[in-house]
Amino acid sequence: MEAALIILAVLGFVAMLVRLVRAAFGALRHGVDAFLAREAVEARARRGDLTGMAEAQNWNRGARRARLRSLVIAALCLAALVAPAFTPWTRELYAAYSLLWLFAHPRPALRPR
Fold first, then answer.
1. What does the alpha-carbon distance between residue 67 and residue 74 come to, in Å, rounded to a whole number?
2. How far from the centroid of its chain's Cα atoms is residue 18's Cα?
3. How far is the C-alpha of 57 from the C-alpha of 43, rounded, in Å?
């Protein structure tokens, strides 16, 4: 029973670590998107393209919102990785995280044909 708990704890830790890395890379990607959208806003403002500028501002807002969401998820995942180490139920909590591997693991999106 002890060996099964340790295996589940390791899988749970890895599942949470995967979520943390995905969220960190998502924050990086959305940060680049926000930068590019901000540059598009400035370029369209210089050209006087008001409609295009409004569209680029919407892209910028969406990218900033997605970056913030990714950063919050990364912070929560980091807290979830560190917090169990300070409790007497460390293995049990990490073993509970193994359910993330089964139920909340991101699946690739289906591509339309």
1. 10
2. 10
3. 12
